[in-house]
Amino acid sequence: MNINRLTKKKLKLFMTLFGNLLIALIISIVVYFILALFFENTLSELVARLNYDLYSWIVYNRDIVVYVYILIVLAVVIYRFISKYVEGMDEVYKSLDLVLKEDSETIKLPSEVNEFSEKLNDIKYDYILSKKNAKEAEDKKNDLIMYMAHDLKTPLTSIIGYLTLLTDEKEMPRNLQEKYIKIALDKALRVEELTNEFFDITRYNLSSMPINKQDINLTYLLEQLVDECFPMLEEKHLKCNLNAKEKVMYLGDGDKLARAFGNLLKNAINYSFENTTIEINLKEENNNILISFKNKGEKIPNYKLDKIFEKFYRGDSSRASSTGGAGLGLAITKEIIELHGGSIGVKNDNEYIEFNITLKA
User: Fold this and answer.
1) Residues 61, 105 within the same domain
2) Residues with Cβ within 8 Å of residue 344, at least 6 apart in sequence
3) 23 assigned to some structural domain
4) How many domains does the chain contain in total?
């Protein structure tokens, strides 16, 4: 609570107390005059009969009696006001236990301290939300461990199996040896790739990493990525067309953008139907640079499209370990694009999946 709110609270309490005292004073004076006008003789006779000395003292000290009467009334009003406020604060203290209860029940307080209700409810709902987010994060980490254990076990089993064959079979033909060695090497490279992804998850924090901007030719960068992925394209009998001007300059971090675009290209390769063509379009439009990656593949349900950029999310959890990653690639891509002040989205129809990037030129 800042100083202004505290001052307003004090002023409100003072005005409430002052108003109560003023009303009580007016009522007590009115009651006194009513008693004096209509019941004075009756009350005097009653007091005189009970105790004549008391009656005499009241008569001779009438002003003191009036002052004492008013002070008693005011004291009762102040006591009641403080009691209600203290009771209200006690309700606030009791309601603090309700903040930690994970239910939908709204905290309600007496009118004297009603302004605390909204704040306590905000704290309660923030606490519930943080617990929910923490649980979701824990579930995702557990899923990640399960994915990684499965994905690491598969290539390791193959490596052990083929190396065992090479060790046990002394008279194995040369061509078969080379085949098994190549398979073992491919699986070992896959283990390295998965291990690197795991390290990314534990240490990669894009929001705290600096962006080293320099002038880069995006066309040349994309051409290099397509060349690097040529073996993957060949393996799945895919083609990749880059539609772009010879030079599209942009001030950005080349290494990070290469990683972002590389993730999108590899994602397109992994999810494309065989014997199809991946289209990469790069153009400048209205002071923006527009980049799209389009491939022909199975339709992605809308509920998966909403989560596709989340960390640890894998659109197809049942796909083969040889293509499945840890679910970090698209999340990293999104963060890299946003660090450059851009945006990324995804759409698909019954045939094509398309990722669209917008960068400010």
Assistant:
1) yes
2) 309, 333, 334, 337, 338, 355, 356, 357, 358
3) yes
4) 3
Q: What angle do CA 269, 274, 280 make, to 5 degrees?
A: 40
Torsion of CA 41, 45, 51, 56, to 10 degrees: 40
- pTM for this prediction: 0.51
Domain shared by 259 and 176, yes or no? no
Which of 354, 346, 215 shows the shortest CA–CA distance to 297? Answer: 354
For the CA atoms of 281, 219, 265, 299, the dihedral, rounded to the nearest 10 degrees, stands at -10
User: Could you tell me the pLDDT band of residue 314, with boundaries at 50, 70 and 90?
Assistant: low
Q: Which amino acid, 246? A: E
Report the C-alpha gap between 278 and 73 in whole angstroms. Answer: 88
At 201, list the tokens: 């998850």
Residue 29 burial (10 A CB sphere; 0-12, 13-18, 19+): middle
- The CATH number given to whatever domain includes residue 261 is 3.30.565.10
264: nearest Cα among 240, 300, 294: 294
What would the pLDDT profile of 21-64 be if each residue is shown by its tens digit? Answer: 788 778 877 777 776 666 566 767 776 777 777 667 766 777 77
> Tell me, what amino acid is at 261?
F
- 12 with 55, same domain? yes
The runs of H, that is alpha helices, within the chain are: 3-38, 40-50, 52-60, 62-99, 115-168, 174-203, 218-228, 230-235, 254-271, 302-305, 329-339
pLDDT given for residue 319 in this prediction: 43
Is there a domain that residue 55 lies in?
A: yes
- Encoded tokens for 246: 């010879």
Distances (CA, A) of 271 to 277, 292, 293: 12, 16, 12
